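Continued from yesterday's entry.
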Amino acid sequence: MKIIADQQIPHVAQAFSQFAEVTLCDGREITAESIHEADVLLVRSVTPVNVNLLQGSHVKFVASATSGQDHIDSDYLQRNNIGFAHAKGSNARSVAEYVMSSLFVLADQHDFKLKEKTVGVIGCGEVGSRVIAMFETMGVRTIMNDPPLKDAISNSASTGEQYRDLRELLSADIITLHVPITEGGPYPTLKLVDAGFLDKLNGDVILLNTSRGRVIDEVALRVHLESHHNMKVVLDVWENEPDIDTDLLTHTAIATPHIAGYSMDGKLRATEMIFRSVCEFFKLNATWQVVTELPDGSMPELTLSADIDDEDAIQIAILASYDVRGDSAALRCLPEINIEQRGRYFDELRENYPVRREFTAMMIRLPESKKALAEKLRQLGFNVKLTS
């Protein structure tokens, strides 16, 4: 069996070489010629998989080590009996942790408490539901909007009522986007955030996008920000990656190079998921466990005192685990780079991304009197040890 794989899929060669010849490629340079003799193609979101890539090839199965699949022409795969799998939900925790880190950074910079804010969550699937659960753990009020999901459960009126109309959500203090790209159907998300959407927002709203760049009309957003200086924007995804709009970059509060889902845990989870899918499709009796590949080292610990406020404690714990400011500072350098090299720099930030662990890799020590806080931290994913 011959496999062509994106070289940025962690441990892909180790996992698959036990039963296949694995050739690693730059994901942006995978071509019809390079995959012609392959049986399996393993990609990430930077590789469009469509008729132009696959026609005439021997590929029988495609797997994407991503939660999203808008880079995949699913109809073409189905018409040509090519198997497909993706790593749905593999990076949901990582993206949710990115959202929390970003908001606590802004809370610190602008002196507000999250529990005093209302958060609108657009898209309540794998990532959005994880974000909502974290907010609920912290006692933050959320407004949920997901028309397709509401339609899917319309027979259960009591459940469906939790999803609110978009007009109601636009009054929220914070709005976070977690939708796929859809261009047709009753609820298209392409340029969902346009001039009309932006004009309905509060003047000091915080807008986060960790879904897909094309969900936002970037021209409209840049124009809006030029006259709404109190609005704060967090962008991890961009319309024309890797050649992003540097003018828009300068208007953001936090800006990163599409790395919200880039925890090592999430990446390895994705590798394991596509490994299992390939084995199932080809009926292979092979094993590979992600746990054996996680970075070694003792679990970092954080000790908090008995007199600390719960939200302050959660903020300290989250930023000790992952502080988004480092990733944002790296992308801020982009305008200083020669224009011809900016796209390469964006990709290099992703390709050379440092090891980032999820909340589950940190131990929090608390006194016995902080049992309620301990439970909140556990629900957020941290390991907690109570001490006398």
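--- second protein ---
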Amino acid sequence: MLRIALAQINTTVGDLEGNLVKMAQFIRRSREVGADVVVFPELATTGYPPEDLLFKKHFVEDNLRMLKKLMPETANITAIVGCVDVNAQGKLFNAAAVIHNHRLQGMYHKKELPNYGVFDEKRYFTAGSENKIFLLNQNTLGISICEDIWTPAGPCREQITAGAKILINISSSPYHFAKDKLREDVLCGWAKEYKVYVAYTNLVGGQDELVFDGRSMIVDPRGQVIAAGKQFAEDLVIADIDIPKKSKIKKIKNVQSIAIPKAAHEDARLKIAGQVARCLDPAEEIYQALVLGTRDYLQKNGFKKAVIGLSGGIDSSLVAVIACAAIGRENVVGVSMPSQFTSVGTRSDARILAKNLGIQLMEVPIAGILSTYLFVLRNEFAGQQVDTTEENLQARIRGNILMALSNKFGWLVLTTGNKSEIAVGYCTLYGDMSGGFAVIKDVPKTKVYEIARFINKTQNHVIPDTVLKRAPTAELRENQKDQDTLPPYDVLDDILKYYVEDRQSAEKIIKRQLNAQLVEKVIKMVDRSEYKRRQAAPGIKITPRAFGKDWRLPITNKYKEV
């Protein structure tokens, strides 16, 4: 019997000492429950992704020093730790260190380096050239790292051919909606096809635009999940694995076998049945991702409070609820900035929301400031028609007020724009885009409503029902509605999904029975708004293709889809 503990931890990039302390704590917890092996996520020593910190030689050296400092913690237990390794020629490897009884028993180097989407591993790492399996308590372990197990003909298959009965994969797999099911299908596929156990440890936590959702799991040879960790929370996942026959190692090309000294535990231990944490419902899943991403961005960057412009609309209401869940209502400040175009209803809803949440609300009217701007510019604007210039002035006044409060009190400004608006440029540069973190930047408008309804269902209608029922409006001119400029959001979000996330051409999108003129209009809006998005605050990725690292189009670009 082999008792495996999966240490699903929340690391911080660059906090080498802090990550070491956390790993030591989880090793002790694993030893207390009699685990033979404890498995940590990919690049656990450095945090993930370390990006260009890897170009600092001293950073890599410090990461290896932390690994050595961890070794004394491994008495009578095997620890598999994600780290950065370096060879004599100075080449870097994304590695898994196998440590037992204070000694490094072996090191596996990741062979499959992803270089798509948010991944840039070929920029930093060299692909491993050797495969390895480890013999622990007569159990053969094949150890791999993240992308390795997503490659059907990759190192995991070689390990199975060499006799591995347990595949251990350490991972830092970024979240997007429904990715957990995709991962589970891959892991269960390996287990069922090759009749092996699969133990998968995933990182949890927020890092800039990325969120890691955890959900580490152990799968048996029937393809059944026998233990699974929580989503969006640290966890220690424990289960016992029984392989009735002694494992045999076969000698095959490119696979090295390494024996690990037997652990001190006896097989007479009472067997632990793994616990499977519940899967979250779709809206709850996205909500928890946004809460975790917001909390970690503020706390890991040293912010104690957040400030939000509360318009009385659905987007700012959702961001306020998320902020309260992330850092506590006492650390959230709302600012209402009404103008002559602000309705009684939206102004009232901002107050009701603040009261329901129990947050501080400031009211800073902007009509007088707008009048001053227009007076100062009266000669320059003489003879010109009123247009979006005057609308954008209001947004920029509000942005200035929020940034002034941020500067004065050290609060982080949370912007409130959603993916639908940012995609088509329905936002004001240096106005409502001003801020430090864009919580719902990757959340389409239709999803905003879904999450808000989930919140109201579970949090006693904290968002006023009138906010959900009112037609969306920026309230920058009389009787303005979003639909004056944009298609209905359900139609817009469909077009954006096809164009942005699925990379489909205008021709293919139109064949889906969508209005050709509307499709062409939306695509033009997306293409010409790249300069705005490039200057936007970072925000949490929750879709397969988010604006940011996933989307790298040139601003100066003469290629037109339509």
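The domain at 2-278 is CATH 3.60.110.10 (Nitrilase/N-carbamoyl-D-aminoacid amidohydrolase). Residues 388-409 form the longest helix (22 residues). Will compare against the first tomorrow.
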